[in-house]
Amino acid sequence: MGMRFCMLGSGSTGNAMVVAADEGKVLIDAGLSAKKVEQLMQERGMSPQELDAILVTHEHADHIKGLGAIARKYDLPIYANEKTWEALDKQIGEIAEANKCVMQTGEIREFGSLQIESYAISHDAAEPVGYCFYHGEEKLSLATDLGYMSSKVKEKIEDSDVLILEANHDIEMLRMGCYPWNIKRRILSDVGHLSNEAAGSGLVDVVTAKTKRVYLAHLSRDHNMMDLARLTVNNMVEERLEPDDHRAKLMDTYHDRPTAWDRLSEE
Fold first, then answer.
1. Where are the alpha helices (DSSP H) in 99-225?
2. SS3 at position 185
3. What is the per-residue pLDDT for 90?
């Protein structure tokens, strides 16, 4: 079967995704209510009962809203690094000690036939991480909540078959928006979120001939639109590539509905 994944929800209001292989199924973040996670998984032909674990990127509410409830209901282990555990422990209610699993940044864990590696990212959280998923020769990378795309991040996510990359905001929409300036400054900072422009610029450095698709993710509902994100990223890429260079297909994500299952082995 190979590796496949589904973005259950992606955006400033809540984030969750499922990664599955022939052996091994994991939920990455639970930033939607437990009821919503259940509903969306059912829409894609799965139940939380099938999960082996939940992995956490960081402790912000749009990534852990339903975490405690779904872990308790289905007796699921939660994996996060120590600093993230310290930050989220009081937010998610009581969790059985056996299900409080530490996965340090940079560690690789196996879940069935899936290998999962965490890596450090720049964001205003305790110790935020992204994840790379491996199954045989297949590689899927998740890179959202990035203040900027550092050389170390680029090194981790380059040469992926499929990449999930943050395109959070349009800079001018954010500057003209109604947020207080301190919030705008935080979003625009090196520990904030990746803009459409920054996503497009960084993408050129990590896409290889192996990369089939790039999902634009974690879009702000107030300061971005999918059509604008796709156009801006595409324009940035076209400015820097030669005519014969490889181009990965840009894919949409949604805050209010799941993506279709994507099998990495499919062209």
1. 151-157, 171-176, 181-188, 196-206
2. helix
3. 87
Q: Is the Cβ–Cβ distance between 31 and 10 less than 8 Å?
A: no
Tokens 């930033």 correspond to what residue?
A: 31
Tokens 């090194």 found at: 155
User: Which ranges constitute the DSSP H helices of the chain?
Assistant: 34-43, 61-64, 67-74, 82-88, 151-157, 171-176, 181-188, 196-206, 226-240
Residue 177 CB contacts under 8 Å (≥ 6 apart), including other chains:
184, 222, 223
DSSP state of 248: P
Structure tokens at 119: 């890596």
Distance in angstroms (rounded) separating the CA atoms of residues 251 and 237: 14
Complete DSSP assignment for 156-169: HHTT-SEEEEE--B
pLDDT for res 86: 96
**pLDDT of 229 above 90:** yes
Contact 212, 262 (CB under 8 A): no
